């Protein structure tokens, strides 16, 4: 990477200037190719939505799903979001891309609600750039109307980093979204540089405990205590709790005993393409 190139260049004197610039050029070219491919991918319909079920810990039923983006890149295969979402944010492509997945996920969910599961809730990840787009609430309202999905069937997942932004700009967006009747979940809770006062300042409906806490349960006593405390605090403040990254039965039992409402993770299912998720839903009905 550029940092290590810089480091090497400094270490061994000015002779490495040539190496340094070559390295940067290769990176710039790679980056440019990726950006070009990404822009093309949107017009060529190369993006897909995967769905990961959320399970009620009291009924063991599927109560919702998280929409997770995938890029089906020709000749390469399925590219995970961590490899293209950050760049899409930087180049502004996240705005059209984010609108696309929001609409797609709402359409699909409305179909599933009619066919299998009338109370299914869809969660969509919203990046900070998207949330700061003043046109977002209006866009969501239009999509819900077009698709016929009630607002209570939609949840937006935001991250702690967003809440460190300008509160005067953020609050009106929160207000507009809450007025629509949509719920808001705080994703990856406990990993950002967040402060608990955010929970007082912003209308958050659900805390999603980060996988890093769940992973250490039940072996690590500190994770057990922290998870207990997060659930107790959230519930006392009137927020529901979802645990992400549940991979073992032990973790599920612990969460159910601790008053956690929902879980999501490989223990129940990985994120799935439409047809496979549908199979899960149809089994869920019986
Ligand atoms: P996230 O929102 O925290 O999503 C959960 C991630 O954890 C997903 O990775 C999911 O596959 C993974 N996961 C779920 N259960 C388990 C488990 O039991 N064990 C392990 N090891 N992993 C589990 P994925 O799909 O690769 O997404 C990564 C991140 O990319 C997401 O994290 C989210 O921040 C971002 N992302 C995905 N789709 C979108 C999107 O449409 N818009 C935006 N803005 N970001 C997105
Ligand atoms: Mg999420
Ligand atoms: Mg998460
Ligand atoms: Mg996470």
TrEMBL record:
**Locate the EAL domain: which residues?**
31-285
This protein's record includes keyword Amino-acid biosynthesis: no
Q: Give the UniProt keywords, A-Z.
A: Coiled coil
- The protein here is known as EAL domain-containing protein
Recorded source organism is Undibacterium hunanense
Portion of the parent chain present: 603 to 888 of 888
């Amino acid at each position: 990477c550029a940092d290590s190139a810089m480091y090497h260049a400094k270490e061994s004197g000015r002779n490495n200037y040539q190496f340094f610039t070559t390295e940067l050029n290769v990176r710039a070219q790679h980056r440019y190719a990726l950006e070009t491919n990404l822009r093309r991918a949107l017009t060529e319909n190369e993006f897909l939505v995967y769905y990961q079920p959320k399970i009620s810990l009291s009924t063991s039923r599927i109560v919702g799903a998280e929409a997770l983006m995938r890029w089906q890149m020709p000749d390469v295969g399925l590219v995970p979001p961590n490899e293209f979402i950050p760049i899409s944010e930087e180049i502004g492509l996240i705005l059209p891309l984010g609108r696309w997945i929001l609409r797609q996920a709402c359409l699909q969910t409305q179909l599933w609600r009619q066919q299998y599961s009338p109370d299914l809730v869809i969660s969509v990840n919203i990046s900070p750039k998207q949330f700061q787009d003043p046109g977002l609430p209006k866009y969501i309202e239009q999509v819900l109307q077009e698709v016929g999905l009630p607002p209570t069937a939609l949840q937006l997942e935001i991250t702690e980093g967003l809440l460190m932004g300008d509160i005067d700009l953020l609050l009106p967006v929160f207000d507009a979204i809450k007025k629509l009747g949509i719920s808001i979940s705080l994703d990856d809770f406990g990993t950002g540089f967040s402060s608990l006062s955010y929970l007082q300042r912003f209308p958050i409906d659900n805390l999603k405990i980060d996988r890093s806490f769940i992973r250490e349960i039940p072996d690590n006593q500190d994770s057990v205590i922290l998870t207990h405390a997060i659930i107790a605090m959230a519930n006392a403040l009137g927020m529901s709790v979802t645990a992400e990254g549940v991979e073992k039965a032990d973790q599920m039992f612990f969460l159910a005993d601790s008053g956690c409402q929902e879980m999501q993770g490989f223990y129940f299912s990985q994120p799935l393409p439409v047809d496979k998720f549908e199979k899960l839903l149809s089994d869920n009905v019986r």
